[in-house]
Automatic annotation (TrEMBL):
UniProt keyword list: Cytoplasm, Repeat, Ubl conjugation pathway
Pathway participation: Protein modification; protein ubiquitination
UBA domain sequence ranges: 183-229, 289-329
The protein's name: Ubiquitin-associated domain-containing protein 1
One Gene Ontology term, aspect cellular component: cytoplasm
Keyword Cell division: no
Highest taxon, organism lineage: Eukaryota
Organism name: Rissa tridactyla (Black-legged kittiwake)
UniProt main location, coarse: cytoplasm
Biased composition (Low complexity): 244-266
SUPFAM superfamilies given in the database record: UBA-like, Ubiquitin-like
Length: 406
C-alpha cells in the first residue's frame, strides 16, 4: 500500500450541473483544489477544452445552496463543501465590447439633442403664449404668512388647552408632573433623527448630543460646531451649568409640591391661581433663545443687539431671513407674535372640530409642545416625531394646507 493512500483525505461525492442541463457525479478527495475540480468537470462536459489555458479561468464553480462562488486556490475542505452537495459550473460573462468611434459620436449627438433648452430657446418657444402676472414676492410672503399664521394658531391653542386642562380636577397634579417633565426634558431630550445623521457622519454620539443641545437641535449648525471644535481639548467636557440647572429643577419641583400641598383643601379660586403660576413657570422656561452665532454676525453688520434678537425671534432663528427683516419693512413685528388667530375664523374652527386635536388638547404634553415650538421653532421636528404630539401637529398642518388651497 502506498504511503500517500494511507493518509489520503475523505472522498466526497459531488453533484455537478451545467447551465445547459448536463448533470453528473464527481468523486474527489476533500484536499482537492477548486481549480483541479473545475478541470475535471471541464474534461467531462467539454472534451478538448483544456487545450486553451484560458478555458479554466473563463469558468467558475458555484455552491448551489449558499450561492457562493468558489475560490480556485482553496481546497474543497476549505470551502466547507460537504458530501452530496450540488455545484454549478458556468461560463463567465464576456465583457461588453468597447464602443466604436462612430457609435460614440452618435451617442454624443443623441445627448446633445436631449439636452435641456437654454433661456433663449425657452423664450422663443413661449413667445406666443399669453402672459400672466406672477409676482415672485407673493410666494415669499405666503411662506412667511404661513409661519406667522402657524404661530398665531399655537398662541390661541395654548389658551384653549389651558382652559380645558384647568377643568380637570387633577389639573394641579398634572401640571406639577408636567413641570417636572419639562425640567427633565430640557436636559435629556435630543432629536433622534438629527443625532443619527451626525453619528452616521462619524461624529461620536456624546459629542454630537452636546453639539445639538448647543445649537438648538440644528444639524447644520451642530455639524459646523463639531468641525470647528474637533481639536479643542475641552470639546468633550460637559455643558456648563448642567448641575445647577438640575438643582434648580429639583428646587422648583419641591417648591411646587410645597405650594400644591394645601391645594386639595383650597377653594377652586386658589387652585386656579396656582395653575396660573405654573403656566407662568412653564412659559419662563420656554423663553426664546437666539442663535449666538447669528447674533454676532448680524451685530457685526451694525445692527443693535435688541433689534437683532427681535429679528431672529420673528424669523425662527434663521440668519438670512432675519437680515432681510432688518433691512426691510420689519413685518410682522415682535408684538404681532403674541397675538392669536381669530377664534371665529374657518381655519381655527376646523382645527378645534378635529377629534385628534380635541383629544390632544387635554394632554399636558401637548401644551408643553405648543409652548416649546412657540419660542423655539427649531424644536418642532422633535414634537412632530413624538407619538403623543406628532398626530396633533400633523392634523393642524393638513387642515391649514387644505383651507389654504381653497
Amino acid at each position: 500500500v502506498q504511503e500517500e493512500k494511507i493518509f489520503a483525505g475523505k472522498v466526497l461525492r459531488l453533484h455537478v450541473c451545467t447551465m445547459e442541463g448536463a448533470e453528473w457525479l464527481e468523486e474527489v478527495p476533500e484536499d482537492t483544489t477548486v481549480e483541479k475540480l473545475k478541470e475535471r468537470c471541464l474534461k467531462h462536459c467539454v472534451p478538448g477544452s483544456l487545450e486553451d489555458p484560458k478555458t479554466v479561468t473563463h469558468h467558475k464553480l458555484i455552491h448551489a445552496t449558499s450561492e457562493k462562488v468558489l475560490t480556485d486556490t482553496k481546497t474543497v475542505l476549505e470551502e466547507n463543501i460537504q458530501d452530496r452537495d450540488v455545484l454549478l459550473l458556468i461560463k463567465k460573462r464576456a465583457p461588453p465590447p468597447l464602443p466604436k468611434m462612430a457609435d460614440v459620436s452618435a451617442e454624443e449627438k443623441r445627448k446633445q439633442e436631449q439636452k435641456a433648452p437654454d433661456k433663449d430657446a425657452i423664450l422663443k418657444a413661449t413667445a406666443n403664449l399669453p402672459s400672466r402676472n406672477v409676482d415672485r414676492t407673493v410666494a415669499h410672503h405666503n411662506m412667511r404668512d404661513f409661519q406667522t399664521e402657524l404661530r398665531k394658531i399655537l398662541v390661541s391653542l395654548i389658551e384653549v388647552a389651558q382652559k380645558l386642562l384647568a377643568l380637570n380636577p387633577d389639573a394641579v397634579e398634572l401640571f406639577k408632573k408636567a413641570n417636572a417633565m419639562l425640567d427633565e426634558d430640557e436636559e435629556d431630550r435630543v432629536d433622534e433623527i438629527a443625532l443619527r445623521q451626525l453619528t452616521e457622519m462619524g461624529f461620536p454620539e456624546s459629542r454630537a448630543v452636546k453639539a445639538l443641545r448647543l445649537n438648538h437641535m440644528s444639524v447644520t449648525q451642530a455639524m459646523e460646531w463639531l468641525i470647528e471644535h474637533a481639536d479643542d481639548p475641552t470639546v468633550d467636557a460637559p455643558l456648563p451649568g448642567q448641575t445647577p440647572a438640575e438643582a434648580t429643577a429639583e428646587a422648583g419641583a419641591s417648591s411646587a409640591e410645597a405650594t400644591a400641598g394645601p391645594s386639595s383643601e383650597a377653594s377652586a379660586e386658589e387652585a386656579k391661581d396656582e395653575l396660573t403660576e405654573i403656566f407662568k413657570k412653564i412659559r419662563r422656561k420656554r423663553e426664546f433663545r437666539p442663535d449666538p452665532r447669528a447674533v454676532i454676525a448680524l451685530m457685526e453688520m451694525g445692527f443693535d443687539e435688541k433689534e437683532v434678537v427681535d429679528a431672529l425671534r420673528v424669523n425662527n432663528n434663521q440668519q438670512n431671513a432675519a437680515c432681510e427683516w432688518l433691512l426691510g419693512d420689519r413685518k410682522p413685528s415682535p408684538e404681532d407674535l403674541d397675538k392669536g388667530i381669530d377664534t371665529n375664523s374657518p381655519l381655527f374652527q376646523a382645527i378645534l372640530e378635529n377629534p385628534v386635536v380635541q383629544l390632544g388638547l387635554t394632554n399636558p404634553k401637548t401644551l408643553l409642545a405648543f409652548e416649546d415650538m412657540l419660542e423655539n421653532p427649531l424644536n418642532s421636528t422633535q414634537w412632530m416625531n413624538d407619538p403623543e404630539t406628532g398626530p396633533v401637529m400633523l392634523q393642524i398642518s393638513r387642515i391649514f394646507q387644505t383651507l389654504n388651497r381653497t
